[in-house]
């Protein structure tokens, strides 16, 4: 029986005690936490059961860990935070903590570590999960401190596992050989219903970040006021077709469009198109999860670095939006002046709103998901592709690291650029209008695209 099938209010735990003490609000939090943890584990199981043990232990790219490292790391983080920190129990496998410490061991070196074998990694993660569900059965979510209040630690661990599920999906994209995963294509939506290529976002203040989203992570906090001048932003992400025009115009061979570091990067590595593209017989092809096919011109462009996105924007006479501009376009409601949780409102994402959760293994055509549009008509701000912004990853005013500095604080600075919005590979639990992702500007293996912006003409 899966954890999702358990009835947390009534089913006895391992010790025979009834599950689910507390108020109705606590019952709802418990159900939400069980569902989030179970959804993540189902995805982890799929990503690690669709290939054999040799594939699990292989390193498919020096940029990524072996899949078996991610599997045991997920269990180890869950043990450390929910079994030890929340429940106060003795460590189950303290001797493996250092093996699965991401800061101690760069990804390229992880295959040389004495990692748990696939069967042992699965058994360990399953043992931890069973114990954690018993902890969750008896947890009280108010007055127990910031880790426990609103079930924060359980939400944090569900988000952590889903983030590694996205990382493992990137590894699947990088692996060679036939496809191991499949999913139906996203629905074909009416991009023709887009009446404008760009929309005007009025200038003025808006509330950026959050102070009351229970499972928001530290870098999303606190809520604060930003004043953003009026600007125009693309109604949809930049498409493969639009990007092909940049390629055909010699964009990768014209230094005018590139930052010096980006120009040096593409020259050093002979980059002439997005990652996984190749030209054959006068046609551009791409490889996605083991399948090679013509590049579809109506999809958002994917697997481009920040430097490539920035160069395209310059070539097009535009620029990347700042992080504050992106969030205002996604959350600000001009009619009420308030910031929404999501572009469409405060309801959690559903299949009609956004392409999330690995339901589809690629982005939907640009202009899809009209029911997920912002009040100003901007589409696909959530899901499909992570969107590079112009901004460095920096703390908000009043930022406080919680529950550990290594989640966000150690990455603050000009070395990392902010991405927003999530991708098709991201689960809704790890994606909000306030959610901030970041990466090095050279990264191309991630599921990243972009949209462009420009300053509004003075009135």
- CATH homologous superfamily placement of the largest domain: paralog of FGE (formylglycine-generating enzyme)
What helical percentage do the residues reach? 25-40%
How many strand units? 12
Mean pLDDT: 93
Total helices: the number is 9
Distance between the termini: 63 Å
Strand order of the largest sheet: 10-9-8-11
Instruction: Tell me the series of helices and strands, N- to C-terminal.
Output: HHHHHEEEEHHEEEHHEEEEE
- Name the shape in a single word: globular
CATH architectural category of the largest domain: Alpha-Beta Complex
**Helix and strand composition category:** alpha+beta
Low-confidence stretches: 1-18
* Biggest sheet record: 4 strands, mixed
The CATH top-level class label of the largest domain = Alpha Beta
**CATH third-tier fold name of the largest domain:** paralog of FGE (formylglycine-generating enzyme)
Structure description:
- The protein has 459 residues and is of the alpha+beta class.
- It has 2 domains: 3-174, dinb family like domain (Four Helix Bundle (Hemerythrin (Met), subunit A), Up-down Bundle); 184-459, Alpha-Beta Complex (paralog of FGE (formylglycine-generating enzyme)).
- The chain is 29% helix and 12% strand.
- The protein has helices at residues 24-49, 53-57, 67-86, 118-138, 152-174, 240-248, 260-268, 306-315, 323-331, and strands at 198-201, 204-208, 224-228, 231-234, 277-280, 283-288, 291-294, 386-393, 413-420, 437-439, 448-449, 453-455.
- Strands 10-9-8-11 form a 4-stranded mixed beta sheet. A 3-stranded antiparallel beta sheet has the order 1-4-12, with helices on one face. It has a 3-stranded antiparallel beta sheet with strand order 5-6-7, with no helix packed on it.
- α3 runs antiparallel to α5.
């Amino acid at each position: 029986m899966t954890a999702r099938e358990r009835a947390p209010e009534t089913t006895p735990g391992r010790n025979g005690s009834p599950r689910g003490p507390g108020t109705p609000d606590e019952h709802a939090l418990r159900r939400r936490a069980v569902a989030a943890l179970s959804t993540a584990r189902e995805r982890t199981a799929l990503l690690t059961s669709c290939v054999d043990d040799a594939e699990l232990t292989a390193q498919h790219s020096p940029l990524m860990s072996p899949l078996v490292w991610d599997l045991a790391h997920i269990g180890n983080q869950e043990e450390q935070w929910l079994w030890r920190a929340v429940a106060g129990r003795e460590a189950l496998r303290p001797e493996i903590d250092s093996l699965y410490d991401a800061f101690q061991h760069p990804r390229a070196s992880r295959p040389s570590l004495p990692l748990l074998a696939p069967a042992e990694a699965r058994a360990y993660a399953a043992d931890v999960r069973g114990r954690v569900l018993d902890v969750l059965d008896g947890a009280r979510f108010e007055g127990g401190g910031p880790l426990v209040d609103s079930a924060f630690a359980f939400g944090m661990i569900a988000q952590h596992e889903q983030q590694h599920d996205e990382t493992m999906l990137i590894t699947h994209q990088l692996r060679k050989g036939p496809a191991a995963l499949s999913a139906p294509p996203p629905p074909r939506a009416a991009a023709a219903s887009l009446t404008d290529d760009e929309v005007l976002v009025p200038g003025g203040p808006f509330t950026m970040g959050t102070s009351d989203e229970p499972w928001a992570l530290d870098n999303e906090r606190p809520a604060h006021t930003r004043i953003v001048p009026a600007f125009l932003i693309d109604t949809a992400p930049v498409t493969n077709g639009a990007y092909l025009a940049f390629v055909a115009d010699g964009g990768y061979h014209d230094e005018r469009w590139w930052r010096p570091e980006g120009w040096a990067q593409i020259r050093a590595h002979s980059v002439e198109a997005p990652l996984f593209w190749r030209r054959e017989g006068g046609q551009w092809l791409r490889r996605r999860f083991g399948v090679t096919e013509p590049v579809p011109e109506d999809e958002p462009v994917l697997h481009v670095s920040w430097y490539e996105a920035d160069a395209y924007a310059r070539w097009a006479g535009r620029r990347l939006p700042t992080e504050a501009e992106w969030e205002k376009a996604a959350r600000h409601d001009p009619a009420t002046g308030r910031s929404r949780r999501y572009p469409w409102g405060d309801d959690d994402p559903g299949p009609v709103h956004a392409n999330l959760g690995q339901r589809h293994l690629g982005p939907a055509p640009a202009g899809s998901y009209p029911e997920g549009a912002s009040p100003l008509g901007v589409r696909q701000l959530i899901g499909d592709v992570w969107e590079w912004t112009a901004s460095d990853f920096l703390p908000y005013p009043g930022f406080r690291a919680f529950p550990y500095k290594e989640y966000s604080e150690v990455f603050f600075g000009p070395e990392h650029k902010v991405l927003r919005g999530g991708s098709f590979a991201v689960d809704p639990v790890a994606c909000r209008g306030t959610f901030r992702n970041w990466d090095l500007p050279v990264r191309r293996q991630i599921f990243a695209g972009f949209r462009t912006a420009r300053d509004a003409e003075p009135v």
